[in-house]
Design brief:
The complex is a heterodimer of chains A (about 400) and B (about 270). By secondary structure, chain A is α/β, with parallel strands linked by helices. Chain A has one domain: TIM Barrel (Alpha-Beta Barrel). Chain A has 15 helices and eleven strands. In chain A, helix 7 packs across helix 15 and helix 13 crosses helix 14. The mean pLDDT of chain A is about 95. Chain B has about 270 residues and is α/β, with parallel strands linked by helices. Chain B has a single domain, classed as Alpha/Beta hydrolase fold, catalytic domain (Rossmann fold, 3-Layer(aba) Sandwich), CATH 3.40.50.1820. Chain B is about 35% helix and about 20% strand. In chain B, helix 1 packs parallel to helix 9. Chain B is globular. The relative contact order of chain B is 0.18. The chains are: A alpha/beta (about 400), B alpha/beta (about 270). The interface between A and B is medium-sized, with 22 and 20 residues.
């Protein structure tokens, strides 16, 4: 199992400035001197991954105190030079929202070349709160995403001169990037899955699906991926087609691990701090999802479908305890033995995954605590993850036949 | 081809697109292009009032209400051509064309494309043009505010915005969300306008009446004058105690003004 260290590079100093942390929070609340130290510190933590046998995961958001990375290309370009071994995962490049895909493909190819083929290429639609900063039409983002995806792949795999592209969203007549990617035919592609139905087109393309933060939904997503692969008559998907995201805190004791996780949980408490017109602009979520969200609210259920436990019962992240969040598959926390057992449980419950996406820094968690958590993970947990083997074909078929869980 | 689905609600296929519309009243035809989420949201009172003077035909725009938006529609120009076809299919050559807010934008796009397709044009708080410089927002960003904030700027009396979503069944509630999505689809960028529309408004040659609420804060205060100034010979009538949707806040008054403008009171009597 490959493990990736992640931090959204938050700016917690501004979290008390306003109830809304996205789109409208004035950047007067960003102190460049504080930010300079903070961003360098976060990059140092990524660089440390190389020594610890961990990989690196970066993301980006805009107009927000929850994430300072302006483009995943920027840290990746630095880390391509500063590290030698770690896989470099962007999850992802928000091609449903911003950047022209040809420029994205060229920059990603550059990172892949400089890192000698260490790029893991996540392509994402972009979070709903990115609609306003990018002023992208929210009702276009899904079709824009898939067109951009197709264009990135074709751009990276065309080596015999320019090709033509006159699509719905993108128009080019001479596409011919230099450099081209180091990895053949292109860096591994990852896409985030938020629902079982979203896993199907990812499975059809054979890309890696990233899920997480909810054991039950992730299990459904992974099952849907495996089912689609089976329907297409293909061999069972290998575990490296699945990534699971969790908040992680490893301490010397259970208490210390829980304390680290409680601070990382600042991510959960701030990520949705924006009014609904920015969290759910019309057209970003399908009509069917809007309808069920409305019906849930009528029943007095607050929070998204992701804020649920393994039975599908509501579990508001703001008030849930660390043990509850561990059980729901949101958090892995405790001493190294406990964290290992939690990973194993999640692995068995979801049908297995080859990538653990570990948010080991979040919220106010300090540099020293982050390094301690990362180091303990590296020394005490990581070696044991070699025990996870590819599942037997029969086990996979059992998953394929599994009916959706209630709730 | 023309089917009645339920009382007063019809469907017709136009240029490969299934369209639904409401009808009210008798007499001379009036094609009404709706604002917001549909012709009967927040209420159909304005259509009933117009129905006292006209035979009102009030379609849902494609992708609004119960029908999915087909891939054939990419921008407001597509809607303009669709409604020109719609008018031909339904034989509305002598009709009055009325459009409100977003529907007013569509109506203006139709009128510059075919100046003679209708007898008269009435634009109620139409959107669709850009007047001032690039840093001046002519039209409030309705997608960056709460429903309550929107009601506050869109109505003289925000209570008139009330529309009970809780009472809707799944089909109509889904239709409401579909309408919101399509409003964004057609109006997101450039925001609620066509950059070129204003310079072609001189092509509108039918008698044109602009109607705007005196408390419309959805658009910049000089917006309706600028729009009216660009349509030769047009008039602008202000409605007191009304905001961006005077046809919802003062439905009887607006219907009477349109009827008077079209000189159609006689036909209303004959229909009664």
């Amino acid at each position: 199992m490959q493990v990736y260290h992640f931090s959204e590079n938050p700016y917690p100093d501004a979290w008390d400035a306003d109830p809304c942390l996205r789109v409208t929070l004035p950047n007067q609340h960003f102190d460049p001197k504080v930010g300079a130290d903070l961003i360098n510190r976060y990059i140092d933590e990524w660089v440390l991954c190389d020594e610890l046998g961990l990989n690196i995961w970066v993301n980006e958001h805009h107009s927000t105190a929850t994430c300072l990375t302006a483009s995943t290309m920027l840290p990746l370009a630095m880390l391509a030079r500063e590290t030698k071994k770690a896989r470099l995962l962007t999850l992802g490049v928000p091609i449903g929202m911003r950047m022209d895909p040809v420029l994205a493909a060229e920059e990603l190819a550059y990172i892949d070349v400089v890192s000698h083929g260490r790029l893991e290429m996540g392509l994402v639609r972009g979070y709903s709160t990115e609609v306003a900063p990018n002023n992208v039409n929210p009702a276009h983002t899904t079709e824009r995403f898939w067109e951009a995806h197709d264009l990135v792949i074709k751009t990276m795999t065309t080596h015999d001169g320019p090709f033509n592209w006159e699509g719905e969203h993108f128009h080019f007549r001479q596409v011919n990037i230099w450099p081209r990617p180091y990895q053949e035919p292109h860096p591994p592609v990852w896409i985030t899955g938020f629902s079982p139905s979203s896993a199907r087109p990812i499975a059809e393309r054979g890309h890696t699906v990233a899920a997480g933060l909810n054991a039950r939904i992730s299990r459904e997503i992974f099952n849907a991926y495996r089912q689609r692969t089976n329907e297409l008559g293909r061999p069972a998907a290998r575990q490296d087609r699945f990534g699971y995201l969790a908040l992680v805190g490893v301490g010397e004791t259970e208490e210390e691990g829980h304390r680290f996780a409680s601070q990382v949980k600042g991510y959960l408490e701030t990520t949705g701090r924006a009014p609904s017109h920015f969290l759910s602009p019309p057209g970003y979520f399908p009509v069917s999802a809007k309808l069920s969200e409305f019906r849930r609210a009528q029943q007095g259920i607050a929070g998204s479908i992701f804020q649920t436990d393994r039975k599908g019962n509501p579990l508001p992240h703001a008030t849930a305890s660390i043990p509850q969040l561990i059980d729901a598959g949101v958090v892995l926390a405790g001493n190294p033995d406990q964290v290992f057992e939690q990973i194993k449980d999640l692995y068995d419950y979801t049908g297995g995954f080859g990538h653990l996406l570990a948010m080991m820094q979040g919220g106010h968690l300090s540099h020293d605590d982050t390094v301690k958590s990362m180091s303990l993970f590296s020394r005490e947990v990581l070696p044991r993850l070699k025990e996870f083997l590819e599942p037997q074909e029969a086990e996979v078929l059992e998953r394929v036949r599994e009916r959706p869980l209630p709730g | 081809m023309l089917k009645e689905i339920e009382n007063g609600r019809h469907s017709v296929e136009v240029s490969g697109t299934k369209m639904e519309f409401l009808t009210f009243g008798k007499g001379r035809p009036l094609l009404f292009l709706h604002s917001g989420e549909g012709p009967d949201i927040p209420s159909d009172e304005c259509l009933r009032c117009l129905g006292a003077h006209f035979r009102v035909i009030a379609p849902w725009h494609p992708g609004f209400g119960r029908n999915e938006r087909s891939k054939n529609f990419r921008d407001v120009g597509d809607l303009a051509y669709l409604y020109l076809d719609f008018a031909e299919v339904l034989g509305l050559a002598d009709a009055t064309l009325v459009g409100a807010s977003f529907g007013g934008w569509v109506a203006a796009e139709m009128a510059v494309r075919n100046a003679n397709a209708f007898n008269a044009l009435s634009l109620i708080s139409p959107l669709g043009i850009k007047v001032r410089d690039r840093e001046s927002r002519d039209i409030a960003d309705i997608f960056a505010m709460t429903d309550a904030e929107f009601a506050e700027i869109a109505y003289a009396d925000p209570k008139c915005a009330e529309y009970d979503l809780d009472a809707l069944g799944d089909e109509d509630l889904a239709g409401y969300f579909r309408s919101r999505e399509s409003l964004a689809f057609f109006g997101w960028k450039p925001y609620m306008h066509s950059p070129q529309l204003r310079r072609w408004l001189h092509r509108i040659t039918v008698p044109t009446l602009f109607i705007a609420g005196s408390q419309d804060r959805v658009v910049w205060e000089g917006y309706h004058e600028a729009y009216s100034d660009a349509v030769r010979g047009s008039r602008l009538t202000r409605i007191a105690n009304a905001g961006h949707f005077p046809h919802h806040e003062r439905p009887g008054e607006v219907a009477d003004i349109i009827a008077q403008f079209c000189g159609s009171d006689a036909s209303a009597e004959s229909a009664a």
